[in-house]
What we know:
2 copies of one chain form a homodimer.
Chain A: H1 9-15, E1 19-20, E2 34-39, E3 42-44, H2 52-56, E4 59-61, E5 65-67, E6 72-74, E7 80-81, H3 89-96, E8 113-119, H4 131-142, E9 147-150, H5 152-164, E10 168-176, E11 179-187, E12 195-201, E13 205-212, E14 217-225, H6 235-245, H7 248-269, E15 277-284, H8 286-293, E16 315-316, H9 317-320, E17 329-332, H10 342-351, E18 359-365, E19 369-374, E20 379-384, E21 405-411, E22 417-421, E23 429-430, H11 432-444, E24 461-464, E25 467-473, E26 482-485, H12 486-509, E27 517-523, H13 532-537, E28 549-553, H14 555-565, H15 567-579, E29 581-583, H16 591-597, H17 610-618
Helix pairs in contact in A: 6-7, 7-8, 10-14, 10-15, 12-16, 14-15
Amino acid sequence: MEVPVGTVLLEAAHKAGIYLSSICGGDGYCGKCKVIVDAGQFHTHPTTLLTQDEIRRDIVLACQTTVLSDMTVTVPKSHTLETTQILMDSDAHRFSELPGEARAGLFKFDPKVKKIYVEMSPPTIHNHTADHERLYVAIREQVDAPIMQTGFRILQKLSAVMQASGYKVTATIGRRGECTELIEIEAGDQHARNYAVAVDLGTTTVVAHLMDLTAAKTIDTEATYNSQINFGEDYIRRIIYAEENDAFEEMQDRLVNDINNLVVTLASRKRVDLQDITTVVCAGNTAMVHFLLNLDPRRIRREPYIASASFVPPIRAAEVGIQINKRGLLYCLPSVAAYVGSDIVAGVLTTRMYTKKGISLFADIGTNGEVVLGNKEWLVCASSSAGPAFEGSGIKYGMRAGAGAIEKLTIHNNGTAEYRTIAETHPVGICGSGLLDTLAGLFTHGIIDRTGRFADGQSAVNEGDEGNQFVLVPASDGHNEIVITQADINNLVRSKAGVFAAIRVLMESTQTTLDDLDAVYLAGGFGNFLDVKNAVTIGMLPDVPTEKIKFVGNTAIAGAKTVLLSRQAMRTAEHIAGSMTYFDLMSHPGYMDEFIRAGFLPHTDLSLFPSVAGAATNHV
Amino acid sequence: MEVPVGTVLLEAAHKAGIYLSSICGGDGYCGKCKVIVDAGQFHTHPTTLLTQDEIRRDIVLACQTTVLSDMTVTVPKSHTLETTQILMDSDAHRFSELPGEARAGLFKFDPKVKKIYVEMSPPTIHNHTADHERLYVAIREQVDAPIMQTGFRILQKLSAVMQASGYKVTATIGRRGECTELIEIEAGDQHARNYAVAVDLGTTTVVAHLMDLTAAKTIDTEATYNSQINFGEDYIRRIIYAEENDAFEEMQDRLVNDINNLVVTLASRKRVDLQDITTVVCAGNTAMVHFLLNLDPRRIRREPYIASASFVPPIRAAEVGIQINKRGLLYCLPSVAAYVGSDIVAGVLTTRMYTKKGISLFADIGTNGEVVLGNKEWLVCASSSAGPAFEGSGIKYGMRAGAGAIEKLTIHNNGTAEYRTIAETHPVGICGSGLLDTLAGLFTHGIIDRTGRFADGQSAVNEGDEGNQFVLVPASDGHNEIVITQADINNLVRSKAGVFAAIRVLMESTQTTLDDLDAVYLAGGFGNFLDVKNAVTIGMLPDVPTEKIKFVGNTAIAGAKTVLLSRQAMRTAEHIAGSMTYFDLMSHPGYMDEFIRAGFLPHTDLSLFPSVAGAATNHV
């Protein structure tokens, strides 16, 4: 790979197809793009993010380093994001076997795009209805389609197909709100060859499920990293990057490319013809949907914090470059606001909290922390800018839920930790559920106090490069130790405080008490081994009986699939999005107070956490 | 112009941009493509269509002649159709000042495509509706648009336009049936710049009216020959030509080119920006609409005689190549059947016969002869394959209504003819109204008998190249004589017989008597000097009191304009087209008998024409 002298190493790596992790978008303050220089001349800016040891080993931040000669660079394995590499099957599996799956029977099965086999009487002198209207009549005998539309190209070809097939054709009809579009016509009976892809457009991970629309079932699943990730781990950073570098199209291209990789992988694995994939339904946060469609996302991060479109009309998937049937349709679930996207609407749809008499709380802890409170009468929502600490970001050994991640951890009384890793390999880092367990364990054992600071005189706490740290996994032959630092803990506490403060604002505003809460739904990529009780222990979720808390997994993909299979579900999603009241926390007078009060373990006000109060008072 | 040896002269002329008149599509039997060879070698097939004198003067049929060397050829002026030449203003005027004009107030003014100026409150933190939905709300405050759609390109740009304009924009909305599409968004108030073109897609003439959609008025009119004409004067010939030569695209190109010529001429004359023309509405026979859209027209001429589409959905005008705003919409009025097109529906709409208690008859005598009978309860229709004799086709000195055409003619008792020509030039031929006068005059003066044959012993009748003929205009210094031949008369009688037989079938089938007829509407390019009484005298129209017969002119353009200005009118047109009962005359058991009975002047059964019977019995 040749690059000009002076090229930034991060960029050079990118050009070589190697995507380095980067939270800050190349601004040099996240420290995630560390690489080892094996040979060659370079210039690097001074940074506080490298230890003396790392500097001695010629480790640099790729974003702060420019190339001066031929160079040989090693990328530490755990820091690489190979976006073109599809996640392992076992990882994709994690996203498909969760309780938040679309359940049959809740909505009428009536896919957004349908193939209908129609046999018509051929025209005669005495039955001279034109082909176009003859087909409409035949379609309407089978489906409810009072308002029909036909694009010009289909109009031009339908006579030929009808004649050649002896008036036995398969019509593909796509629903565009109240209108029904005739999007394809094929000779003969092809109605069983109708597939769709549901997509969860995550900031970190893009998940796709391939569905058979005739059998109404999921036939395969796949996931990949969102390859925008080296422009910033959170979407605010990516918007800034795109704005500064006029890279909106590149942002779109990457996301579309990710989707295409998933679609092609699924289709080839299941021997499905791409032409027979007629539908894509996406759920994702507002920024991701804007990136996908190349809608202007700039005011998502700037006052007045609005979307260009919340209710995105169906468009042809080919218009954004998604490689399914070239007349196939792309649907995006509706969003509520700039910071409450269609993934959250999908969550409300999936949990069915909008149908219940009792009040439910829904919290989606991903790169952001969105919360929804309500019942069949009302719904309120908010988004905490808590940051993606529980996705491993800003945490020294934090990582996403992948092979080698500690996903479950127990601290014993002797200060040692017992853990379980994904794929049962030697641990390389800690993912969300492991971090939750760690924080709860440190707190309940008094290793950290209510402010989150390491308590004095704890034997398991030592002094590391970045101050006090707790050793979770000691170093062993060839493996680094894995520790949690004071800075990590502070990040996690800030993150949980943001989520809980948002919950408090919603509960206070609606005068909802703890007793009023019938159910708490926790969504996100935590994985099935999440210990929900620990989410209460650290004060992230309200202190309700554990049996009321349900981990619902990836509700974004579940909601996308529900909508794919049922027009009624899409109408319900639109109703949910349209009726939800959004609280802007940044301008809310009480939020900052709530955030500060939630910055303790479990909270400043222990009366809010009666079940935790015992542990907490032991070591104030 | 270079062409290979062996090229057919008609084709060579065409390549040189000279369009010769041709009814038969180059099959050598219409005799309309006569040219004079001034120099050069050629080969020509023997033909009975040239007189000895013509052959001596090196006149050939261009379609039967192949080029063998360099040639110089003169095209007789009266036989040229210069398709790129727009008809003179006076001709266009003929089409605009007719009583069939769209009348204000009959339908609610509510154009198919509207520009609406909307001022919105810019978003704030407390009013965070997304731009797309904000615009929808604002549009819906002004217009009834429950179902809205936005194309992807507009969705992508709307935020930028809204922001740049301070949320003061002009939205262009187009109605697609029950759906309303946001087709354009512009900064600031542009609502007054909204223009449309109504088009009458005639087989012979294409007429366009430029309308100001804000002021709801016609601002200019223009007409041109349909430049498909050298592939055949009637559309059946053109379909055959297109099928044999795979020339469907060329057919479309020519028609689109004609429309573009008209649109550009009108727009430049009135200094209207093409981008501000948002709508085109077309009315025409079913074949012309199929050619325009490149829909398969082949079964229009073959069993089962059906259209590919009768109710054509709105499409983007740019999709067929019409050069208005690239997102502007093209609407076609609905048609009834292969031989009863949207021009006839426009006629019914314009005459308002569908609203009346009494029964009306509508007859459109153009290249074909379509008739509609009915009232507000029922409508029946049929098409006679009478041929375009009254458009001058198949008539030795027949011509379209243009400069030099005899449009009014009276035969005096002494056998001389008094006439009036269009543009008051020396006569070069006879157009429809003149032919009607001629036939009626010859009959009432006993110059022809009830069978249409020249009576014996008429001094004004002489023997011409083609048998007996009547001299209408004697030869004079440099001008040919103008005659009407026995063959001409036979053609005209066949043509009127076709129309009347169709009327009879409809009246008999619905048990409508002469007395039941409240009104007879005659449409077509006859011009204002049409003597409607003569249409009864020759037995083309039923014998009702003259005051009941109204010449309504070009109802196709009038209907297109009405629809342009009112969604309600389009819905009415759809209702008319959907409820009209079509009689296929070719398969109708009584039609042939009626046709034979109508082959006399005025008819075999004189009791049907009491007002004419006196004249008729004088010279049986």
